[in-house]
Design a protein that fits this description.
The chain is built from 3 helices and 12 strands, in the order H-E-E-E-H-E-E-E-H-E-E-E-E-E-E. 33% of the residues are buried. It is mainly beta. The protein is globular, with a radius of gyration of 18 Å. The strands form 3 sheets. A 7-stranded antiparallel beta sheet has the order 8-7-4-5-6-10-9. The chain is 12% helix and 35% strand.
């Protein structure tokens, strides 16, 4: 379940033990857990003091601000033979992905890009989409890797974690960009 969320074009972020320092506001302390190793935050996220926010809300905001720049929107176009005469009918699809590196590799679900004739990747805040090339797939695990030719300065990689150290009951966050609704956040627990 967690692997699907993480590798499915979203980001599963596990909380570190000391949540009390998160309210200090200087750095997003939500980090992807990796077998006892802490990875540096993706970006500094600061919040002005606001007594109306709960600790949980502050944590949610830090996670979102720390990782959202690495979540992309993926649009696909394909032709599917339908009807009695099996005429090609155009279809469109959409999904989310995560920037893997500054070279333009994007992680998404295989079902998002399966049978796509054309793939477009839109970066957060980006005006124009980039053409996505399918460079790797693992259909059994519903994983695909795309490559886009975007300037490294526009790419903000989301570090991958290690699900081996996760426990039932740990809090996770999933960021996405479905249907062009830039920047969604969902919280949950490992079950």
């Amino acid at each position: 379940c967690t692997m699907s969320a993480l590798l499915g074009g979203a980001v599963a972020v596990c909380l570190v033990d000391d949540q009390s320092s998160w309210t200090s506001g200087s750095v997003a302390n939500a980090q992807v857990a990796a077998a006892g190793t802490q990875i540096a935050p993706i970006t500094n996220a600061s919040l002005p003091p606001n007594p109306s926010l709960t600790t949980e809300e502050i944590t949610n905001i830090h996670v979102y601000e720390g990782a959202n720049r690495g979540v992309v929107n993926i649009l696909t176009q394909s032709s599917v033979a339908t009807g009695f005469f099996m005429l090609p009918t155009p279809e469109e699809g959409a999904g989310s992905g995560s920037v893997l590196d500054k070279q333009g590799h994007i992680l998404t679900n295989y079902h998002v890009v399966e049978d796509a004739d054309q793939i477009q990747v839109r970066l957060p805040g980006g005006e124009k989409p980039y053409e996505g090339k399918l460079v790797g797939t693992d259909p059994e695990n519903d994983i695909a890797v795309l490559k886009i030719d975007a300037p490294p300065g526009e790419l903000f990689p989301v570090p991958l974690g290690n699900s081996n150290s996760l426990h039932v009951g740990q809090r996770v966050y999933t960021l996405g960009n479905p249907f062009g609704f830039e920047g969604t956040l969902t919280t949950g627990i490992i079950s």
